[in-house]
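In response to reviewer comment 3 from the previous cycle, which asked for concrete evidence that the modeling workflow produces usable outputs, we include below a single protein chain processed end to end. The sequence was submitted unchanged, and the resulting C-alpha cells are shown without manual editing.
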Amino acid sequence: MTSVSNATPRRTVDNVALGITLSIAATVIFGVQDAMAKLLVQDYSPFQLAMIRFWAFAAFSLFLVARQGRLRTAFHSKQPVTQLIRATLLVVDIWLFAAALKTVPLAELQAIVLIYPLLATLAAIPLLGEKVGLFRFAAVAVGFLGALVIVRPGGLPLDLGVLYAVLSAICYALYIALTRKVSATDSTATSMLYVGTVGLVLTTAVGLFFWQPVDWQSVPLLAGVMVTTVSAHGIMMVALSRAPASTLQPFNYFSLPWGILLSWTIFGHLIDPIALVGALVIAGAGLAVMTRERQISVQRRKDGKPTTAERAPR
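The workflow returned the following C-alpha cells.
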C-alpha cells in the first residue's frame, strides 16, 4: 500500500524534479515494505503486523510534530469526528490490505488497489459535494472493467483475499476524500497526529489479542517494516514540500510495474498477459481522472473560484 498519511505539508521552494524523484523513491520503499509484509503475513496475523507498523508511524508523527513545538495545539481539530472516522478508515484499510497479501499475488494486488483514485472520485460526490462529469464517470467505468479483467474466470481466483483487496481500496478512497475535507480546516500536523494516535490505539487494542511470539528469523523483516514505514513517509513528505501533490500523484502508478517486478523476483510469480492488460486499463483510467481533475482545478483558479478542498464544509 502507499502512504499512511495523505496530508500535504506546506511547500518550501519548488523543485519539481527533486519532488518527482523522491516520490518515486518513496514508492519503491513502500513496495519493498509490501513484499516484506507478504512474507511475514504467512506466519503472523495481519493485526499484529498493522500494530507494529503503527507503532513506528505513531512515534514518527509524534516526534515530527513535537519537534515543531506544536504537539499540544495540534490535537485541536475543527472536525474531530471526521478526523476520527478518517483515521479509523485507514486502520481498516491496512488490516484488509495485510489480509489480502496472504493469498493475492503482489502484482495483482497492486493492480486491484489502484482503483482507489476512481473510487475517491465517486466518494467526492456525497462527501465533498463535487460534481463529476460524463468524462470522469466514463473513466471510472473503464477502470472497473479493468479490474473485472483481472478477476475474470480463469484469471485471478476469486477468494477472500480479492474481497479484502477491493474493500481495502474502498476504505482508502474514503480516507482520501475525508482527507481533502479536513484539509480545509485542519493543519497537516493535526491530520498526522490523528492518524498516528488513533491508529496506535486501535491497532494495539486489537493486535495484542493476535500476538504471536516472534522468532529471530522474522526480526529483520519486522524491523524492516518499521524502518520503511518511517523512511517512506519522511521521503514522501519532503517530496510534497518540493512539488505540488497534483504533479506527484501520477507517479503513484509506478507501484504497478514495481509490484510486478517484486512479485516475479521475490515470489516467482509473473502476472499473466490478460491480467496485465486489465492493470494497464486501471492505470490509464486513473491517470485520465487525475488529468481531468487537475484541468478543472486549474480552470477554477483562473475563474477565481474556490477549489474542492476550499469548498469543503467547515
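The chain has one domain: 16-311. We consider this sufficient to address the reviewer's concern, and the full set will be provided in the supplementary archive.
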